[in-house]
Amino acid sequence: MKKIILIVLSFYFLFAFSSFASEKYNFRINGKSHNFDNKVFSNNLVGCGDRQYQKGSRKNESILYLTGADFKIVGGIFDCSLQNTIFVERATNLVIENVTSSRGSDNPLEIRNSYVFVRNSTFKDSVTNKCVETENGIVIFYRNTFSNCRNGHDMELTKSGYAVSVFLENRFIKIRDDGFNCHGNVFLFLKNNTFSGQAGYTFRKFGKRKTCKNVFQIPKELEDSIKANNHIESFKIIKKIISLKKLGS
Protein backbone atom coordinates (compact mmCIF):
# COMPACT_ATOMS: atom_id res chain seq x y z
CA MET A 1 0.00 0.00 0.00
CA LYS A 2 2.80 2.42 0.89
CA LYS A 3 4.49 1.63 -2.41
CA ILE A 4 1.34 2.47 -4.35
CA ILE A 5 0.94 5.75 -2.46
CA LEU A 6 4.55 6.69 -3.22
CA ILE A 7 4.08 5.94 -6.93
CA VAL A 8 0.90 8.05 -7.04
CA LEU A 9 2.62 10.95 -5.26
CA SER A 10 5.58 10.72 -7.62
CA PHE A 11 3.32 11.03 -10.66
CA TYR A 12 1.47 13.93 -9.03
CA PHE A 13 4.63 15.95 -8.35
CA LEU A 14 6.01 15.13 -11.80
CA PHE A 15 2.80 16.37 -13.42
CA ALA A 16 2.68 19.49 -11.24
CA PHE A 17 6.30 20.35 -12.01
CA SER A 18 5.82 19.77 -15.74
CA SER A 19 2.75 22.01 -15.79
CA PHE A 20 4.64 24.74 -13.97
CA ALA A 21 7.69 24.44 -16.23
CA SER A 22 5.59 24.70 -19.39
CA GLU A 23 3.41 27.59 -18.21
CA LYS A 24 3.42 30.51 -20.64
CA TYR A 25 3.14 34.03 -19.26
CA ASN A 26 1.44 36.77 -21.27
CA PHE A 27 0.36 39.72 -19.10
CA ARG A 28 -1.65 42.44 -20.88
CA ILE A 29 -1.97 45.70 -19.02
CA ASN A 30 -4.03 48.62 -20.28
CA GLY A 31 -3.49 51.82 -18.33
CA LYS A 32 -3.40 50.24 -14.88
CA SER A 33 -0.41 50.66 -12.55
CA HIS A 34 1.04 47.42 -11.24
CA ASN A 35 3.85 46.32 -8.92
CA PHE A 36 5.22 42.87 -9.79
CA ASP A 37 7.18 42.72 -6.51
CA ASN A 38 10.36 41.42 -8.19
CA LYS A 39 8.72 38.08 -8.95
CA VAL A 40 10.21 35.96 -11.74
CA PHE A 41 8.19 35.15 -14.86
CA SER A 42 10.20 32.92 -17.16
CA ASN A 43 8.86 30.96 -20.12
CA ASN A 44 10.32 27.64 -21.22
CA LEU A 45 10.68 28.26 -24.96
CA VAL A 46 13.38 26.70 -27.11
CA GLY A 47 15.42 29.36 -28.91
CA CYS A 48 14.35 32.45 -26.96
CA GLY A 49 17.01 35.16 -27.18
CA ASP A 50 18.11 34.03 -30.66
CA ARG A 51 16.78 35.96 -33.65
CA GLN A 52 16.51 32.89 -35.90
CA TYR A 53 13.69 31.55 -33.67
CA GLN A 54 11.64 34.74 -33.77
CA LYS A 55 7.97 34.09 -34.59
CA GLY A 56 4.41 34.98 -33.63
CA SER A 57 2.75 38.30 -32.82
CA ARG A 58 4.39 40.70 -30.41
CA LYS A 59 1.18 41.14 -28.42
CA ASN A 60 0.67 37.41 -27.94
CA GLU A 61 4.28 36.29 -27.50
CA SER A 62 5.49 39.02 -25.16
CA ILE A 63 5.50 38.24 -21.46
CA LEU A 64 4.43 41.80 -20.71
CA TYR A 65 2.28 43.84 -23.12
CA LEU A 66 1.64 47.47 -22.15
CA THR A 67 -0.72 50.06 -23.59
CA GLY A 68 -2.87 52.91 -22.26
CA ALA A 69 -2.22 56.18 -20.44
CA ASP A 70 -0.87 57.53 -17.15
CA PHE A 71 0.33 54.37 -15.42
CA LYS A 72 3.42 52.84 -13.87
CA ILE A 73 4.98 49.37 -13.95
CA VAL A 74 7.36 48.48 -11.09
CA GLY A 75 9.47 45.41 -10.41
CA GLY A 76 9.32 42.03 -12.07
CA ILE A 77 11.85 39.79 -13.82
CA PHE A 78 10.61 38.83 -17.31
CA ASP A 79 12.56 36.22 -19.23
CA CYS A 80 12.32 34.29 -22.52
CA SER A 81 10.15 35.20 -25.49
CA LEU A 82 10.22 34.36 -29.20
CA GLN A 83 9.29 37.99 -29.86
CA ASN A 84 9.77 41.00 -27.56
CA THR A 85 9.89 40.07 -23.89
CA ILE A 86 8.25 43.43 -23.07
CA PHE A 87 6.24 45.12 -25.83
CA VAL A 88 4.82 48.65 -25.48
CA GLU A 89 2.54 50.33 -28.01
CA ARG A 90 0.34 53.40 -27.91
CA ALA A 91 1.23 54.16 -24.29
CA THR A 92 1.21 57.72 -22.96
CA ASN A 93 2.96 58.88 -19.78
CA LEU A 94 4.07 55.36 -18.89
CA VAL A 95 6.83 54.81 -16.30
CA ILE A 96 8.76 51.52 -16.24
CA GLU A 97 10.91 51.14 -13.14
CA ASN A 98 13.12 48.44 -11.58
CA VAL A 99 12.31 45.71 -14.09
CA THR A 100 14.59 43.12 -15.66
CA SER A 101 13.82 41.84 -19.14
CA SER A 102 15.91 39.25 -20.97
CA ARG A 103 16.18 36.79 -23.84
CA GLY A 104 13.81 38.26 -26.39
CA SER A 105 14.31 36.67 -29.80
CA ASP A 106 13.39 40.08 -31.22
CA ASN A 107 14.57 42.12 -28.22
CA PRO A 108 13.92 42.39 -24.48
CA LEU A 109 12.09 45.72 -24.90
CA GLU A 110 10.31 47.31 -27.86
CA ILE A 111 8.41 50.59 -27.62
CA ARG A 112 6.22 51.93 -30.44
CA ASN A 113 4.24 55.15 -30.79
CA SER A 114 4.54 55.95 -27.10
CA TYR A 115 5.78 58.36 -24.42
CA VAL A 116 7.71 56.30 -21.89
CA PHE A 117 10.16 56.94 -19.04
CA VAL A 118 12.34 53.90 -18.28
CA ARG A 119 14.58 53.97 -15.20
CA ASN A 120 16.71 51.71 -12.99
CA SER A 121 16.04 48.66 -15.14
CA THR A 122 18.04 45.97 -16.98
CA PHE A 123 17.62 44.68 -20.54
CA LYS A 124 19.90 41.87 -21.57
CA ASP A 125 20.82 38.60 -23.27
CA SER A 126 19.53 38.99 -26.82
CA VAL A 127 22.84 37.96 -28.32
CA THR A 128 21.75 38.22 -31.98
CA ASN A 129 19.47 41.26 -31.69
CA LYS A 130 19.02 44.58 -29.88
CA CYS A 131 18.63 45.19 -26.16
CA VAL A 132 15.97 47.81 -26.90
CA GLU A 133 14.17 49.17 -29.95
CA THR A 134 12.05 52.32 -30.22
CA GLU A 135 9.80 53.53 -33.02
CA ASN A 136 8.17 56.99 -33.08
CA GLY A 137 7.25 58.98 -29.97
CA ILE A 138 9.56 59.89 -27.07
CA VAL A 139 11.40 57.49 -24.78
CA ILE A 140 13.67 58.51 -21.88
CA PHE A 141 16.18 56.04 -20.44
CA TYR A 142 17.67 56.97 -17.06
CA ARG A 143 20.17 54.83 -15.13
CA ASN A 144 19.47 51.54 -16.89
CA THR A 145 21.78 48.68 -17.86
CA PHE A 146 21.90 47.18 -21.36
CA SER A 147 24.04 44.07 -21.65
CA ASN A 148 25.00 41.06 -23.75
CA CYS A 149 23.19 42.02 -26.97
CA ARG A 150 24.36 42.37 -30.54
CA ASN A 151 23.28 46.05 -30.58
CA GLY A 152 22.37 48.34 -27.72
CA HIS A 153 19.62 50.56 -29.13
CA ASP A 154 17.86 50.83 -32.47
CA MET A 155 15.40 53.62 -33.27
CA GLU A 156 13.36 54.67 -36.29
CA LEU A 157 10.72 57.06 -37.58
CA THR A 158 8.03 55.31 -39.61
CA LYS A 159 5.32 57.97 -39.84
CA SER A 160 4.81 61.73 -39.60
CA GLY A 161 5.79 63.28 -36.30
CA TYR A 162 9.04 62.56 -34.51
CA ALA A 163 11.11 59.85 -32.89
CA VAL A 164 13.22 60.85 -29.89
CA SER A 165 15.36 58.76 -27.54
CA VAL A 166 17.10 60.23 -24.49
CA PHE A 167 19.85 58.34 -22.64
CA LEU A 168 21.13 59.74 -19.34
CA GLU A 169 23.60 57.86 -17.10
CA ASN A 170 23.01 54.41 -18.56
CA ARG A 171 25.49 51.52 -18.72
CA PHE A 172 26.16 49.48 -21.85
CA ILE A 173 28.02 46.25 -21.13
CA LYS A 174 29.21 43.63 -23.62
CA ILE A 175 27.51 45.05 -26.71
CA ARG A 176 28.89 43.21 -29.73
CA ASP A 177 28.41 45.55 -32.69
CA ASP A 178 26.67 48.92 -32.36
CA GLY A 179 25.74 51.08 -29.41
CA PHE A 180 23.15 53.16 -31.29
CA ASN A 181 21.55 52.78 -34.71
CA CYS A 182 19.17 55.34 -36.22
CA HIS A 183 16.79 55.11 -39.18
CA GLY A 184 15.17 58.21 -40.62
CA ASN A 185 15.09 61.75 -39.26
CA VAL A 186 15.29 60.81 -35.59
CA PHE A 187 16.72 62.67 -32.58
CA LEU A 188 19.11 61.16 -30.05
CA PHE A 189 20.06 62.94 -26.80
CA LEU A 190 22.97 61.59 -24.75
CA LYS A 191 24.88 62.36 -21.57
CA ASN A 192 27.11 60.39 -19.18
CA ASN A 193 26.51 56.94 -20.64
CA THR A 194 29.29 54.34 -20.28
CA PHE A 195 30.42 51.45 -22.47
CA SER A 196 32.46 48.53 -21.21
CA GLY A 197 33.25 44.87 -21.80
CA GLN A 198 32.49 44.95 -25.52
CA ALA A 199 31.97 41.42 -26.82
CA GLY A 200 33.73 41.91 -30.17
CA TYR A 201 36.14 44.02 -32.17
CA THR A 202 33.27 45.20 -34.40
CA PHE A 203 31.85 47.52 -31.70
CA ARG A 204 31.06 51.10 -32.73
CA LYS A 205 29.23 53.58 -30.52
CA PHE A 206 27.11 54.88 -33.41
CA GLY A 207 27.21 51.89 -35.73
CA LYS A 208 29.60 51.17 -38.57
CA ARG A 209 27.74 53.49 -40.96
CA LYS A 210 27.16 56.27 -38.41
CA THR A 211 23.44 56.39 -39.13
CA CYS A 212 22.67 58.74 -36.22
CA LYS A 213 22.84 62.24 -37.69
CA ASN A 214 20.92 64.25 -35.08
CA VAL A 215 22.86 63.58 -31.88
CA PHE A 216 22.83 66.19 -29.10
CA GLN A 217 23.97 66.54 -25.52
CA ILE A 218 21.15 66.66 -22.98
CA PRO A 219 20.63 70.30 -21.89
CA LYS A 220 20.64 71.12 -18.17
CA GLU A 221 16.92 71.92 -17.99
CA LEU A 222 16.06 68.49 -19.33
CA GLU A 223 18.67 66.73 -17.19
CA ASP A 224 17.29 68.33 -14.03
CA SER A 225 13.75 67.33 -14.93
CA ILE A 226 14.75 63.71 -15.60
CA LYS A 227 16.71 63.46 -12.34
CA ALA A 228 13.66 64.81 -10.50
CA ASN A 229 11.66 61.93 -12.07
CA ASN A 230 9.27 64.44 -13.59
CA HIS A 231 8.50 62.59 -16.78
CA ILE A 232 5.58 64.75 -17.90
CA GLU A 233 7.66 67.93 -17.64
CA SER A 234 10.53 66.13 -19.39
CA PHE A 235 8.30 65.25 -22.35
CA LYS A 236 7.21 68.91 -22.60
CA ILE A 237 10.82 70.10 -22.61
CA ILE A 238 11.78 67.59 -25.30
CA LYS A 239 8.88 68.64 -27.52
CA LYS A 240 9.95 72.27 -27.16
CA ILE A 241 13.57 71.44 -28.04
CA ILE A 242 12.58 69.37 -31.10
CA SER A 243 10.25 72.11 -32.36
CA LEU A 244 13.07 74.65 -32.17
CA LYS A 245 15.53 72.32 -33.89
CA LYS A 246 13.09 71.64 -36.72
CA LEU A 247 12.76 75.41 -37.17
CA GLY A 248 16.56 75.67 -37.29
CA SER A 249 16.88 77.69 -34.09
Beta percentage is 35-45%
- Determine the mean pLDDT: 89
CATH domain class name:
Mainly Beta
| CATH topology name | Pectate Lyase C-like
The overall strand count is 16
Q: List the helices and strands in order.
A: HEEEHEEEEEEEEEEEEEHH
- Stretches with pLDDT under 50, minimum 5 residues: 2-21
Q: What's the Cα radius of gyration?
A: 20 Å
H/I helix tally: 4
> What is the 3D shape?
globular
Q: Do you know the CATH architecture?
A: 3 Solenoid
What is the SS-derived class? alpha/beta
CATH superfamily: Single-stranded right-handed beta-helix, Pectin lyase-like
Helix content: 10-25%
The profile of the biggest β sheet is:
16 strands, parallel
- N-end to C-end Cα span: 87 Å
Query: How many discrete domains?
Result: 1
Secondary-structure blueprint:
Layout: H1 2-21, E1 27-30, E2 34-35, E3 40-42, H2 58-61, E4 64-74, E5 77-81, E6 86-97, E7 100-104, E8 109-119, E9 122-124, E10 130-142, E11 145-156, E12 163-168, E13 171-183, E14 187-191, E15 194-196, E16 215-217, H3 220-227, H4 231-246
Parallel strand pairs: 1-4, 2-4, 3-5, 4-6, 5-7, 6-8, 7-9, 8-10, 9-11, 10-11, 10-12, 11-13, 12-14, 13-15, 14-16
Helix pairs in contact: 3-4
Which key features would you list for this structure?
single chain; 249 residues; alpha/beta; Pectate Lyase C-like; 4 helices; 45% strand; disordered N terminus
How would you summarize what this structure contains?
Helices cover 19% and strands 45% of the residues.
Tell me what the structure shows.
With about 250 residues, the chain is an alpha/beta fold. It has one domain (about 25-245): Pectate Lyase C-like, CATH 2.160.20. The protein is about 20% helix and about 45% strand. It has helices at about 1-20, 60, 220-225, 230-245, and strands at about 25-30, 35, 40, 65-75, 75-80, 85-95, 100-105, 110-120, 120-125, 130-140, 145-155, 165-170, 170-185, 185-190, 195, 215. The protein has a 16-stranded parallel β-sheet that branches.
